[in-house]
């Protein structure tokens, strides 16, 4: 349940669905395993084993889970079968198998092997905060997050979710915080950062387990380097790495939150609800504070 990464999107107030609308839409495209010549399949599944609907709701937040299954058929395996078949043809017909014929063999062998290939399954969770108008995706990879948003758009067109644009660019703010030796209210500098020179040479400095208030950091900034990643701690409750693309990587919910969740219920169902409620509330508070520290959202009143 605990999100490890975060990509977040702004929702349109007029088009944010409620639980019934979202459930009805996602139930039309449930997950189905890969069959036949499919390379992959994906669809919506209940967010937890004890649930039987694709949407879990708690305090105006809607949790969903997209499952994907991919066929595992390494290229080296296909090449070995192609070479073996080509060798058999050459031995039987006493001729050389050409490039075009090998390509046809490759397509035929792929079709033969695909139905018998192993599969690899993965899940991607996200939740909609209908009150604060955020879509939170448990991914720090833009492509994966966008894939989930695209599936939501297919289910509920046009589903206007957009990447937020802040008044102050993340790289500018992170660089300023490092230069000042302190983060904005509610946040504190952790022990990790990445600084990049935008000149032609493009030198990159990565600092790990280091005091970010050290003079060495400010010297790098004085030479023109800007922060592209910065480790931060939110109210001694959440540790994460902020990127210049406004994503949160390597999120860790610290002991105080873990303890609060562990005492919230005795059975798996109540623990699931308590954990989700606590985590989603914490992440929304964090994102709201982060956006405020970056000068607010462009096009929205402060």
In short:
The protein has 302 residues and is of the alpha+beta class.
Whole-number tally of structural domains: 3
Per the principal axes of the C-alpha atoms, what is the gross shape? globular
User: The biggest beta sheet, please?
Assistant: 7 strands, antiparallel
Indicate the percent of residues in helices.
25-40%
Order of helices and strands: EHEEEHHEEHEHEEHEEEHH
> Roughly how many Å is the radius of gyration?
24 Å
Residue-averaged pLDDT, rounded?
92
User: What is the first-to-last residue Cα distance?
Assistant: 32 Å
Function: May be involved in recombination.
Family: Belongs to the RdgC family.
Protein name: Recombination-associated protein RdgC
GO molecular function: double-stranded DNA binding
Q: Care to describe what's here?
A:
It holds the Pfam family RdgC. One of its GO terms (cellular component) is cytoplasm. InterPro entries: RdgC. The protein has 302 residues and is an alpha+beta fold. The protein folds into 3 domains: 7-69 and 119-162, no CATH class; 75-115; 170-293, no CATH class. It contains 8 helices and 12 strands. It has helices spanning 19-26, 75-93, 99-113, 142-155, 170-180, 215-222, 255-262, 268-293, and strands spanning 7-11, 40-45, 56-58, 61-72, 118-129, 134-137, 161-162, 187-196, 204-208, 226-234, 238-243, 248-253. The strands form 2 sheets. Strands 1, 2, 3, 4, 5, 6 and 7 form a 7-stranded antiparallel sheet that branches.
């Amino acid at each position: 349940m605990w999100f490890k990464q975060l990509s977040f999107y702004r929702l349109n107030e007029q088009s944010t669905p409620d639980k019934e609308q979202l459930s009805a839409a996602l139930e039309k495209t449930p997950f189905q395993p890969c069959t036949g010549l499919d390379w992959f399949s994906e669809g919506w599944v209940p967010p937890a084993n004890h649930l039987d609907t694709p949407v879990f709701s708690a305090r105006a937040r809607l949790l969903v889970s997209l499952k994907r299954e991919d066929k595992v058929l390494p290229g080296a395996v296909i090449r070995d079968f192609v070479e073996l078949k080509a060798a058999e043809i050459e031995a039987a017909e006493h001729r050389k198998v050409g490039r075009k014929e090998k390509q046809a063999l490759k397509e035929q062998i792929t079709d033969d092997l695909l139905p018998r290939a192993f599969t690899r399954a993965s899940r991607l969770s996200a939740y909609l905060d209908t009150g604060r108008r955020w879509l939170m995706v448990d991914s720090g990879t833009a492509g994966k997050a966008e894939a989930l948003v695209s599936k939501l758009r297919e289910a509920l067109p046009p589903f206007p979710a957009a990447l937020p644009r802040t008044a102050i660019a993340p790289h500018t703010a992170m660089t300023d915080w490092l230069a000042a030796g302190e983060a904005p209210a509610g946040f504190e500098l952790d022990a990790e950062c990445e600084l990049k020179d935008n000149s032609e040479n493009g030198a990159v400095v990565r600092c790990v387990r280091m005091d970010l208030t050290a003079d060495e950091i400010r010297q790098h900034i004085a030479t023109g380097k800007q922060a592209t990643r910065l480790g931060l701690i939110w109210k001694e409750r959440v540790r994460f790495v902020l990127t210049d693309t406004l994503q949160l990587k390597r999120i860790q919910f610290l002991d105080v939150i873990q303890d609060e969740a562990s005492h919230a219920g005795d059975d798996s169902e109540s623990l699931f609800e308590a954990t989700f409620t606590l985590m989603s509330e914490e992440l929304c508070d964090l994102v709201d504070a982060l956006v405020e520290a970056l000068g607010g959202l462009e096009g929205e009143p402060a």
